[in-house]
Amino acid sequence: MISELIHVNLQKLFFMMYKTIIQQFIQQNNYPKLQLKGVFFDMDGVLLDSMGKHASAWIQAMQDYNIPFTSEEVYLYEGQPALLTIEEAYQRTFGKKPAAEVAEEFYSLKSYYIDKMDPIGPMKHADKLLQQIKNQGLGAYLVTGSRQPSIIDMLDIYFPNTFQPDHRVTALDDIKGKPAPDPYLKALSIAGIKPWEAVVIENAPLGVESAVAAGIFTIAINTGPLASSILSERGAHIVLDGGMTELNNKWKEISAHLIS
Ligand code: MG
Fold first, then answer.
1. How far apart are CA 141 and CA 38, in angstroms?
2. How far is the CA of 34 from the centre of ligand 1 (A)?
3. Which CATH superfamily is domain 2-49+121-255 in?
4. Distance 223 CA to ligand 1 centre (A)
5. Per-position b or e across 19-48, b if 16+ CB within 10 A of its CB
6. 2 CA from centroid of ligand 1 (Å)
7. Does the pLDDT value for residue 75 go beyond 90?
8. What CATH number should be reported for the domain whose range is 51-116?
9. Tens-digit pLDDT profile for residues 113-150
């Protein structure tokens, strides 16, 4: 009985807290209101449980090129185009940019290491959240810095009929990558909606920067080893330490303020 009471009161508390955060966001951006129509999903570490494998593959490939690189850096650079990460790490180590063919070879090697590993699984409870979103009549869109078909195609296996080809922004689109706002601005454009009609679900610091720069309400779920404070510092409006499971549990309370 007492635990039920605490649970109900906690839910009310979260409900009020999210209401305040969302009202502040609307005021700061001079938006008329938030009227959610589309939810923009990052892929790695949000829909797919892929970050551990990306980290191993990056480190193996960097070792092959004698470039020092830590697992933490994989998470810090997550979201930006892979070729940029390769260029930056190469430049830092050898004092010059890699030739374009060298960078492409490196990227192929990193992709090869990923493809050699066990298949990537879905993020736990991502399917349940997507079902809630579908039931609310909202559109789901993919906004990823990845351009690896072997990984992007997993979405059709784990979340069939959800991310149609015209609901995807990937690194194959000829635009600037995260942390520039361009990928999320492109998502607004393909969805035909305004920034106050969308919400972004991200896990990476650079992804959060990109979404916030596009003027979109951003929910960060921490699904990796970095401190959650990094996600807040980059501008995330809500940060959930409990990853996709916590977002799935709280979606009803959060979205109640987004669909008015
Ligand atoms: Mg990610």
1. 7
2. 24
3. HAD superfamily/HAD-like (3.40.50.1000)
4. 9
5. eeebeebeeeeebeebebbbbbbbbbbbbb
6. 39
7. yes
8. 1.10.150.240
9. 999 999 999 999 999 999 999 999 999 999 999 888 88
